[in-house]
Every structure is written in structure tokens, then in C-alpha cells.
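B., you asked whether I could sanity-check this one before it goes into the benchmark set. Here's the sequence:
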Amino acid sequence: MSLTGSCLCGASTFEAELGPMGAGACHCGMCRKWSGGVYLSVDCGESVKFKEGAPLGSYKGSEWGERVFCKDCGSSLLWQTQDGKNQHVSIQCFEDPSQFEIGMELFIDRKPSSYALEGERNKMTEAEIFAMFADMEVEK
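And here's what the prediction gave me:
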């Protein structure tokens, strides 16, 4: 599935392809602070291509992950491994976020008790997530 999206001000636009993991919710502390709540994202593999000249910034929050944002408006755009092979775009970057079904919740053991997502889906703990990325042998 071909996707197009943008930041709030429209300066950072992109094209991408839907990846195999679909959409998910991350409850880790960094994602919650970065996005202002639960981070809802869409797996785009390594397909995200920003328009030339897009004012992008990045924050390397760990040895293997980074968060990409628009330097003009501050919109959170995507989380990715530093090698760019695992890109998870904010669901809010798309015109119709309702087109994506949330199929998994990450860092479920870090989710605050003050909210819950409706419905059943796969859920992974912090330990399970770190083990998954360790198995991928992510390059820095």
C-alpha cells in the first residue's frame, strides 16, 4: 500500500509503503514524552522517502534508535533504527489515521494505568521488545 504524509506545517512531506507489522501503539516513556501521549505508528519498513529539502531533525534517544521530527513546526514524524531499516511513522502524519487498525501494543508493562486502548491485540513487554531488536542485529 502506497502512503503519503506530512508534518503539521507541510514542510516535511514523504512517501512510504506499508510494512509487514502494520500499525501499533508504543507506551514507553520516551515515546509518551516525545509524542505527548501514546505513540501510534505505522510500520513502513525502510521505505520512507522525504521530499528533497524537508527540514528534518533527529534525536538519537538510544544506541540504536532515533526520532525524526520537522524542524519548522516540531511535529513528531517517525521513530527508526539508526540504520534506517525499521521506520515507524506517526499515524497522525496521514490524512486518515483511521485507515490503520492498531494490531499491537509495545512496552505494555510501561503503560500508565490512567488509560487503555479498546479491543484485543498482540502485546509485548519491554524485555520482549529489546530481545526482538537484539535478534535483528541492528547496526548503529
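One thing to flag: The mean pLDDT is 94. Otherwise nothing jumped out at me.
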